[in-house]
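A reminder from the course coordinator: this example appears on the midterm review sheet, so study it carefully.

Given structure:
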Protein backbone atom coordinates (compact mmCIF):
# COMPACT_ATOMS: atom_id res chain seq x y z
CA UNK A 1 0.00 0.00 0.00
CA UNK A 2 1.38 3.43 -0.90
CA UNK A 3 2.27 5.84 1.90
CA UNK A 4 -0.34 8.29 0.60
CA UNK A 5 -3.11 5.69 0.79
CA UNK A 6 -2.04 4.64 4.28
CA UNK A 7 -2.07 8.26 5.47
CA UNK A 8 -5.52 8.76 3.99
CA UNK A 9 -6.81 5.66 5.79
CA UNK A 10 -5.43 6.72 9.14
CA UNK A 11 -6.84 10.25 8.70
CA UNK A 12 -10.24 8.74 7.99
CA UNK A 13 -10.03 6.49 11.04
CA UNK A 14 -9.06 9.46 13.23
CA UNK A 15 -11.99 11.51 11.93
CA UNK A 16 -14.30 8.57 12.52
CA UNK A 17 -13.19 8.43 16.14
CA UNK A 18 -13.60 12.20 16.43
CA UNK A 19 -17.16 11.92 15.11
CA UNK A 20 -18.01 9.33 17.77
CA UNK A 21 -16.42 11.44 20.48
CA UNK A 22 -18.41 14.47 19.29
CA UNK A 23 -21.69 12.63 19.91
CA UNK A 24 -20.47 11.21 23.22
CA UNK A 25 -19.38 14.64 24.45
CA UNK A 26 -22.61 16.28 23.32
CA UNK A 27 -24.71 13.57 24.98
CA UNK A 28 -26.72 14.67 28.02
CA UNK A 29 -28.30 12.42 30.72
CA UNK A 30 -27.38 9.55 28.41
CA UNK A 31 -30.72 10.34 26.76
CA UNK A 32 -30.39 13.11 24.20
CA UNK A 33 -27.71 14.96 22.26
CA UNK A 34 -27.30 18.72 22.22
CA UNK A 35 -26.40 20.07 18.76
CA UNK A 36 -23.38 22.00 20.02
CA UNK A 37 -21.99 23.15 23.37
CA UNK A 38 -22.94 26.71 24.42
CA UNK A 39 -24.73 27.66 21.23
CA UNK A 40 -27.53 25.06 21.38
CA UNK A 41 -27.60 23.44 24.85
CA UNK A 42 -30.95 21.58 24.63
CA UNK A 43 -32.59 18.90 22.49
CA UNK A 44 -33.51 20.07 18.99
CA UNK A 45 -36.05 18.06 17.05
CA UNK A 46 -34.56 17.45 13.59
CA UNK A 47 -31.02 17.53 14.96
CA UNK A 48 -31.87 14.55 17.15
CA UNK A 49 -33.34 12.61 14.23
CA UNK A 50 -30.10 12.85 12.25
CA UNK A 51 -27.98 12.34 15.33
CA UNK A 52 -29.82 9.11 16.19
CA UNK A 53 -28.74 7.70 12.82
CA UNK A 54 -25.16 8.59 13.76
CA UNK A 55 -25.45 6.93 17.17
CA UNK A 56 -26.69 3.77 15.50
CA UNK A 57 -23.24 3.23 13.97
CA UNK A 58 -21.73 2.46 17.38
CA UNK A 59 -24.45 2.31 20.07
CA UNK A 60 -27.86 0.98 19.01
CA UNK A 61 -29.55 1.38 22.36
CA UNK A 62 -28.47 5.00 22.59
CA UNK A 63 -29.82 5.64 19.07
CA UNK A 64 -33.30 4.48 20.10
CA UNK A 65 -33.06 6.43 23.34
CA UNK A 66 -32.46 9.64 21.36
CA UNK A 67 -35.78 9.16 19.57
CA UNK A 68 -37.66 8.10 22.71
CA UNK A 69 -36.43 11.19 24.55
CA UNK A 70 -37.52 13.38 21.65
CA UNK A 71 -41.03 11.94 21.74
CA UNK A 72 -41.20 12.34 25.52
CA UNK A 73 -41.73 16.03 24.74
CA UNK A 74 -44.64 15.44 22.34
CA UNK A 75 -47.73 17.55 23.00
CA UNK A 76 -51.22 16.09 23.41
CA UNK A 77 -52.20 17.53 20.03
CA UNK A 78 -49.41 15.42 18.45
CA UNK A 79 -46.88 18.19 17.83
CA UNK A 80 -43.25 17.40 18.52
CA UNK A 81 -41.69 20.72 19.58
CA UNK A 82 -38.59 22.10 17.91
CA UNK A 83 -36.70 22.51 21.20
CA UNK A 84 -37.15 20.47 24.36
CA UNK A 85 -35.67 21.98 27.52
CA UNK A 86 -34.86 18.89 29.58
CA UNK A 87 -32.41 20.72 31.83
CA UNK A 88 -31.98 24.36 32.72
CA UNK A 89 -29.01 26.04 31.02
CA UNK A 90 -28.75 29.80 30.66
CA UNK A 91 -26.46 30.18 27.63
CA UNK A 92 -29.33 30.14 25.10
CA UNK A 93 -31.92 32.68 24.10
CA UNK A 94 -34.92 32.39 23.76
CA UNK A 95 -35.39 29.90 26.58
CA UNK A 96 -38.32 28.77 28.72
CA UNK A 97 -39.11 32.26 30.02
CA UNK A 98 -39.95 33.37 26.48
CA UNK A 99 -41.72 30.30 25.18
CA UNK A 100 -43.66 29.40 28.36
CA UNK A 101 -44.76 26.19 26.69
CA UNK A 102 -44.60 22.44 26.96
CA UNK A 103 -46.64 19.80 28.68
CA UNK A 104 -44.73 16.92 30.29
CA UNK A 105 -41.54 18.89 29.82
CA UNK A 106 -40.77 22.55 28.98
CA UNK A 107 -40.48 23.16 25.26
CA UNK A 108 -40.79 25.67 22.46
CA UNK A 109 -44.22 26.09 20.86
CA UNK A 110 -43.46 25.31 17.23
CA UNK A 111 -42.19 22.20 15.45
CA UNK A 112 -39.41 21.44 12.96
CA UNK A 113 -39.03 19.40 9.73
CA UNK A 114 -40.46 15.95 10.54
CA UNK A 115 -37.47 13.68 9.97
CA UNK A 116 -38.43 11.20 12.73
CA UNK A 117 -40.10 8.51 10.60
CA UNK A 118 -37.18 8.50 8.17
CA UNK A 119 -34.74 8.25 11.02
CA UNK A 120 -36.64 5.44 12.75
CA UNK A 121 -36.94 3.52 9.49
CA UNK A 122 -33.19 3.85 9.10
CA UNK A 123 -32.72 2.46 12.63
CA UNK A 124 -35.07 -0.44 11.83
CA UNK A 125 -33.22 -1.31 8.63
CA UNK A 126 -29.69 -1.03 9.94
CA UNK A 127 -29.93 -2.17 13.58
CA UNK A 128 -28.49 -5.60 14.35
CA UNK A 129 -30.59 -6.23 17.47
CA UNK A 130 -33.90 -7.14 15.80
CA UNK A 131 -35.68 -7.86 19.08
CA UNK A 132 -34.92 -4.39 20.29
CA UNK A 133 -36.09 -3.02 16.92
CA UNK A 134 -39.52 -4.57 17.30
CA UNK A 135 -40.03 -3.42 20.89
CA UNK A 136 -38.89 0.12 20.22
CA UNK A 137 -40.65 0.63 16.92
CA UNK A 138 -44.01 -0.65 18.15
CA UNK A 139 -43.98 2.03 20.85
CA UNK A 140 -42.78 4.81 18.56
CA UNK A 141 -45.04 4.22 15.55
CA UNK A 142 -48.28 5.56 17.06
CA UNK A 143 -46.42 8.62 18.34
CA UNK A 144 -44.89 9.32 14.94
CA UNK A 145 -48.28 8.80 13.31
CA UNK A 146 -49.83 11.37 15.67
CA UNK A 147 -47.11 13.86 14.86
CA UNK A 148 -47.84 13.52 11.12
CA UNK A 149 -51.55 13.79 11.84
CA UNK A 150 -50.85 17.09 13.56
CA UNK A 151 -49.14 18.43 10.44
CA UNK A 152 -51.93 17.23 8.16
CA UNK A 153 -54.81 18.46 10.32
CA UNK A 154 -53.55 21.55 12.14
CA UNK A 155 -51.30 22.83 9.37
CA UNK A 156 -53.49 21.90 6.41
CA UNK A 157 -56.99 22.29 7.84
CA UNK A 158 -58.57 22.39 4.40
CA UNK A 159 -56.73 19.22 3.39
CA UNK A 160 -55.27 20.68 0.24
CA UNK A 161 -52.10 18.59 0.45
CA UNK A 162 -49.52 21.21 1.45
CA UNK A 163 -48.82 21.87 5.13
CA UNK A 164 -48.08 25.37 6.40
CA UNK A 165 -45.24 26.60 8.54
CA UNK A 166 -45.81 29.53 10.88
CA UNK A 167 -42.23 30.42 11.75
CA UNK A 168 -38.79 30.55 10.05
CA UNK A 169 -37.34 28.54 12.97
CA UNK A 170 -39.85 25.81 12.18
CA UNK A 171 -38.40 25.34 8.68
CA UNK A 172 -34.93 24.88 10.18
CA UNK A 173 -33.66 27.34 7.52
CA UNK A 174 -34.06 30.29 9.85
CA UNK A 175 -32.84 33.26 7.84
CA UNK A 176 -33.30 31.94 4.32
CA UNK A 177 -33.95 34.73 1.83
CA UNK A 178 -37.22 32.91 1.07
CA UNK A 179 -38.78 34.42 4.20
CA UNK A 180 -37.75 38.05 3.61
CA UNK A 181 -40.98 39.32 2.07
CA UNK A 182 -43.34 37.57 4.47
CA UNK A 183 -41.30 38.78 7.45
CA UNK A 184 -41.75 42.37 6.28
CA UNK A 185 -45.42 42.05 7.18
CA UNK A 186 -44.82 40.86 10.75
CA UNK A 187 -45.81 43.57 13.21
CA UNK A 188 -43.15 44.33 15.83
CA UNK A 189 -45.06 47.06 17.69
CA UNK A 190 -45.50 44.99 20.86
CA UNK A 191 -42.08 43.38 20.86
CA UNK A 192 -40.73 42.93 24.40
CA UNK A 193 -37.15 43.88 25.15
CA UNK A 194 -34.65 41.08 24.67
CA UNK A 195 -30.94 40.34 24.46
CA UNK A 196 -29.50 37.88 21.98
CA UNK A 197 -26.84 35.48 23.22
CA UNK A 198 -25.96 33.78 19.93
CA UNK A 199 -24.12 36.89 18.70
CA UNK A 200 -21.92 36.87 21.82
CA UNK A 201 -20.79 33.34 20.89
CA UNK A 202 -20.58 33.50 17.08
CA UNK A 203 -19.56 36.24 14.66
CA UNK A 204 -22.81 38.23 14.15
CA UNK A 205 -22.02 38.36 10.42
CA UNK A 206 -22.55 34.60 10.31
CA UNK A 207 -25.93 34.69 12.08
CA UNK A 208 -29.40 36.09 11.29
CA UNK A 209 -29.75 39.87 11.64
CA UNK A 210 -31.42 41.79 14.48
CA UNK A 211 -34.12 42.84 12.03
CA UNK A 212 -34.95 39.15 11.59
CA UNK A 213 -34.76 38.39 15.31
CA UNK A 214 -37.27 41.17 16.04
CA UNK A 215 -39.69 39.40 13.74
CA UNK A 216 -38.89 35.88 14.99
CA UNK A 217 -39.66 37.00 18.53
CA UNK A 218 -42.75 38.99 17.60
CA UNK A 219 -44.13 35.80 16.05
CA UNK A 220 -43.35 33.82 19.20
CA UNK A 221 -45.16 36.43 21.29
CA UNK A 222 -48.15 36.22 18.97
CA UNK A 223 -48.31 32.43 19.32
CA UNK A 224 -47.90 32.61 23.10
CA UNK A 225 -50.64 35.27 23.35
CA UNK A 226 -52.92 32.82 21.55
CA UNK A 227 -51.95 29.92 23.81
CA UNK A 228 -50.38 28.15 20.85
CA UNK A 229 -53.89 27.52 19.51
CA UNK A 230 -53.15 26.31 15.98
CA UNK A 231 -56.52 27.19 14.52
CA UNK A 232 -56.45 30.77 15.76
CA UNK A 233 -52.87 31.24 14.61
CA UNK A 234 -53.68 29.74 11.22
CA UNK A 235 -56.44 32.31 10.78
CA UNK A 236 -54.50 35.43 11.81
CA UNK A 237 -50.82 34.99 11.06
CA UNK A 238 -49.16 36.88 8.20
CA UNK A 239 -46.34 34.34 8.07
CA UNK A 240 -47.94 31.22 6.60
CA UNK A 241 -45.85 29.39 4.06
CA UNK A 242 -45.91 26.00 2.36
CA UNK A 243 -42.20 25.32 2.69
CA UNK A 244 -40.83 23.06 -0.01
CA UNK A 245 -38.41 21.70 2.61
CA UNK A 246 -40.98 20.69 5.22
CA UNK A 247 -43.40 19.38 2.61
CA UNK A 248 -40.72 17.23 0.96
CA UNK A 249 -39.48 15.88 4.27
CA UNK A 250 -43.04 15.12 5.40
CA UNK A 251 -43.86 13.29 2.18
CA UNK A 252 -40.71 11.20 2.48
CA UNK A 253 -41.52 10.61 6.17
CA UNK A 254 -45.01 9.42 5.24
CA UNK A 255 -43.54 6.95 2.77
CA UNK A 256 -41.16 5.65 5.45
CA UNK A 257 -43.93 5.53 8.04
CA UNK A 258 -46.13 3.53 5.68
CA UNK A 259 -43.41 0.92 5.11
CA UNK A 260 -43.01 0.47 8.87
CA UNK A 261 -46.76 0.33 9.55
CA UNK A 262 -47.14 -2.37 6.91
CA UNK A 263 -44.21 -4.35 8.24
CA UNK A 264 -44.86 -4.12 12.00
CA UNK A 265 -48.68 -3.85 11.94
CA UNK A 266 -49.18 -2.06 15.27
CA UNK A 267 -52.95 -1.80 14.62
CA UNK A 268 -55.69 -3.21 12.37
CA UNK A 269 -54.45 -1.22 9.41
CA UNK A 270 -56.29 2.09 9.78
CA UNK A 271 -53.10 4.07 10.35
CA UNK A 272 -51.60 2.73 7.11
CA UNK A 273 -54.81 3.57 5.22
CA UNK A 274 -54.73 7.11 6.59
CA UNK A 275 -51.08 7.57 5.62
CA UNK A 276 -51.86 6.38 2.07
CA UNK A 277 -54.49 9.14 1.85
CA UNK A 278 -51.99 11.77 3.00
CA UNK A 279 -49.42 10.60 0.45
CA UNK A 280 -51.93 10.72 -2.39
CA UNK A 281 -52.98 14.25 -1.45
CA UNK A 282 -49.39 15.43 -1.14
CA UNK A 283 -48.30 13.93 -4.45
CA UNK A 284 -51.08 15.80 -6.24
CA UNK A 285 -50.35 19.08 -4.46
CA UNK A 286 -46.65 19.16 -5.21
CA UNK A 287 -47.22 20.53 -8.72
CA UNK A 288 -48.25 23.80 -7.04
CA UNK A 289 -44.63 24.27 -5.94
CA UNK A 290 -43.15 23.85 -9.44
CA UNK A 291 -42.36 27.02 -11.39
CA UNK A 292 -42.26 26.52 -15.16
CA UNK A 293 -40.28 29.72 -15.63
CA UNK A 294 -37.40 28.98 -13.27
CA UNK A 295 -37.73 25.21 -13.80
CA UNK A 296 -37.41 24.68 -10.07
CA UNK A 297 -39.45 23.96 -6.93
CA UNK A 298 -40.22 26.94 -4.70
CA UNK A 299 -41.98 27.71 -1.43
CA UNK A 300 -45.54 28.99 -1.66
CA UNK A 301 -46.70 31.98 0.38
CA UNK A 302 -50.15 30.88 1.55
CA UNK A 303 -51.17 34.44 2.47
CA UNK A 304 -50.43 36.07 -0.90
CA UNK A 305 -50.97 32.88 -2.89
CA UNK A 306 -47.70 33.54 -4.77
CA UNK A 307 -44.67 31.33 -5.21
CA UNK A 308 -41.68 32.78 -3.37
CA UNK A 309 -39.06 33.81 -5.91
CA UNK A 310 -35.81 32.47 -4.42
CA UNK A 311 -34.37 29.10 -5.40
CA UNK A 312 -32.53 27.47 -2.51
CA UNK A 313 -31.04 24.09 -1.62
CA UNK A 314 -34.56 23.11 -0.48
CA UNK A 315 -35.56 23.10 -4.17
CA UNK A 316 -33.72 19.77 -4.45
CA UNK A 317 -35.48 18.14 -1.47
CA UNK A 318 -38.41 16.90 -3.60
CA UNK A 319 -35.87 14.29 -4.79
CA UNK A 320 -35.80 13.05 -1.18
CA UNK A 321 -39.60 12.79 -1.34
CA UNK A 322 -39.46 10.86 -4.63
CA UNK A 323 -41.91 13.30 -6.19
CA UNK A 324 -39.80 14.59 -9.11
CA UNK A 325 -40.73 13.73 -12.70
CA UNK A 326 -38.02 12.77 -15.23
CA UNK A 327 -38.39 16.14 -16.93
CA UNK A 328 -38.26 18.15 -13.68
CA UNK A 329 -35.25 16.11 -12.56
CA UNK A 330 -33.35 17.06 -15.72
CA UNK A 331 -33.93 20.74 -15.03
CA UNK A 332 -32.95 20.46 -11.38
CA UNK A 333 -29.71 18.71 -12.28
CA UNK A 334 -29.03 21.51 -14.79
CA UNK A 335 -29.32 23.97 -11.89
CA UNK A 336 -26.75 21.97 -9.93
CA UNK A 337 -24.43 22.01 -12.97
CA UNK A 338 -24.79 25.75 -13.35
CA UNK A 339 -24.36 26.44 -9.63
CA UNK A 340 -21.18 24.39 -9.55
CA UNK A 341 -19.57 26.75 -12.06
CA UNK A 342 -19.34 29.47 -9.41
CA UNK A 343 -18.95 27.56 -6.14
CA UNK A 344 -16.42 25.00 -4.99
CA UNK A 345 -18.60 22.88 -2.69
CA UNK A 346 -22.17 21.78 -3.33
CA UNK A 347 -24.91 22.53 -2.30
CA UNK A 348 -25.09 26.20 -1.28
CA UNK A 349 -28.23 27.10 0.65
CA UNK A 350 -29.08 29.87 -1.82
CA UNK A 351 -28.74 30.04 -5.61
CA UNK A 352 -25.17 31.37 -5.90
CA UNK A 353 -26.26 33.73 -8.71
CA UNK A 354 -28.82 35.38 -6.40
CA UNK A 355 -27.79 38.88 -5.37
CA UNK A 356 -28.64 38.03 -1.77
CA UNK A 357 -25.98 35.32 -1.63
CA UNK A 358 -23.93 35.71 1.55
CA UNK A 359 -21.48 32.81 1.71
CA UNK A 360 -20.98 33.00 5.45
CA UNK A 361 -24.39 33.93 6.80
CA UNK A 362 -26.23 30.87 8.11
CA UNK A 363 -28.93 29.91 5.56
CA UNK A 364 -28.18 32.61 2.98
CA UNK A 365 -25.40 30.73 1.21
CA UNK A 366 -23.49 28.22 3.37
CA UNK A 367 -23.51 24.46 2.77
CA UNK A 368 -25.20 22.25 5.40
CA UNK A 369 -24.26 18.59 5.77
CA UNK A 370 -27.75 17.40 6.67
CA UNK A 371 -29.32 19.04 3.62
CA UNK A 372 -26.60 17.49 1.49
CA UNK A 373 -27.40 14.10 3.01
CA UNK A 374 -31.06 14.40 2.04
CA UNK A 375 -30.33 15.74 -1.44
CA UNK A 376 -27.73 13.04 -2.15
CA UNK A 377 -30.08 10.33 -0.90
CA UNK A 378 -32.86 11.72 -3.08
CA UNK A 379 -30.66 11.96 -6.17
CA UNK A 380 -29.64 8.37 -5.69
CA UNK A 381 -33.29 7.30 -5.50
CA UNK A 382 -33.89 9.26 -8.68
CA UNK A 383 -31.03 7.48 -10.44
CA UNK A 384 -28.68 10.47 -10.65
CA UNK A 385 -25.58 8.74 -9.28
CA UNK A 386 -23.02 11.25 -10.49
CA UNK A 387 -24.43 14.24 -8.62
CA UNK A 388 -25.30 12.13 -5.61
CA UNK A 389 -21.66 11.10 -5.31
CA UNK A 390 -20.34 14.57 -6.00
CA UNK A 391 -22.39 15.95 -3.10
CA UNK A 392 -21.28 13.18 -0.81
CA UNK A 393 -17.62 13.75 -1.73
CA UNK A 394 -17.86 17.52 -1.32
CA UNK A 395 -19.41 17.03 2.12
CA UNK A 396 -16.62 14.63 3.09
CA UNK A 397 -13.94 17.04 1.92
CA UNK A 398 -15.45 19.86 3.95
CA UNK A 399 -15.39 17.72 7.08
CA UNK A 400 -11.87 16.41 6.45
CA UNK A 401 -10.48 19.87 5.87
CA UNK A 402 -12.54 21.93 8.31
CA UNK A 403 -13.90 19.59 11.00
CA UNK A 404 -17.51 19.05 12.07
CA UNK A 405 -18.74 22.61 11.68
CA UNK A 406 -22.37 23.69 11.78
CA UNK A 407 -22.13 24.97 8.18
CA UNK A 408 -19.50 25.78 5.56
CA UNK A 409 -18.64 28.52 3.10
CA UNK A 410 -19.47 27.11 -0.38
CA UNK A 411 -16.52 28.93 -1.99
CA UNK A 412 -13.67 28.63 0.51
CA UNK A 413 -14.94 25.66 2.53
CA UNK A 414 -14.35 27.50 5.83
CA UNK A 415 -16.19 25.89 8.75
CA UNK A 416 -18.66 28.32 10.35
CA UNK A 417 -21.11 28.60 13.24
CA UNK A 418 -21.02 26.07 16.07
CA UNK A 419 -18.07 23.70 16.27
CA UNK A 420 -18.04 19.96 17.08
CA UNK A 421 -21.55 19.88 15.73
CA UNK A 422 -23.57 16.71 16.39
CA UNK A 423 -25.51 16.38 13.18
CA UNK A 424 -22.46 17.05 11.03
CA UNK A 425 -20.53 14.35 12.91
CA UNK A 426 -23.55 12.06 12.54
CA UNK A 427 -23.56 12.50 8.75
CA UNK A 428 -19.90 11.50 8.68
CA UNK A 429 -20.76 8.34 10.64
CA UNK A 430 -23.82 7.57 8.49
CA UNK A 431 -21.78 7.83 5.33
CA UNK A 432 -19.03 5.85 7.11
CA UNK A 433 -16.13 7.99 6.15
CA UNK A 434 -17.66 8.90 2.79
C1 LIG B 1 -31.36 29.20 16.72
O1 LIG B 1 -31.48 29.53 17.89
O2 LIG B 1 -30.57 29.71 15.92
C2 LIG B 1 -32.13 28.07 16.23
O3 LIG B 1 -31.94 27.80 14.88
C3 LIG B 1 -33.60 28.23 16.53
O4 LIG B 1 -34.11 26.97 16.53
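Designed residues:
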Amino acid sequence: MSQQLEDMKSDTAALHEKAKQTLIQNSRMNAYTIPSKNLYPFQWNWDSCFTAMGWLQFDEERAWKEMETLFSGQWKNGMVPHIIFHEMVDSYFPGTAVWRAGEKVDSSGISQPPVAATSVRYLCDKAQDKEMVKAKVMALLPQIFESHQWWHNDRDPEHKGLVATFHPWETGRDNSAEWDEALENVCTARLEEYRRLDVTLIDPEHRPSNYEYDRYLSLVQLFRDHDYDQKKIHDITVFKIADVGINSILLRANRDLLVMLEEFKPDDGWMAETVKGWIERQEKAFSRLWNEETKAFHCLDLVSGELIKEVTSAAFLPFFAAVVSKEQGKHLVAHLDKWSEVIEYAVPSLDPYDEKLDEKRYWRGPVWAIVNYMIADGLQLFGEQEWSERIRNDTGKLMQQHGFAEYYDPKTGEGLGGIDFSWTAAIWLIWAGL
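The chain has a mean pLDDT of 97. The two ends are 20 Å apart (CA to CA).
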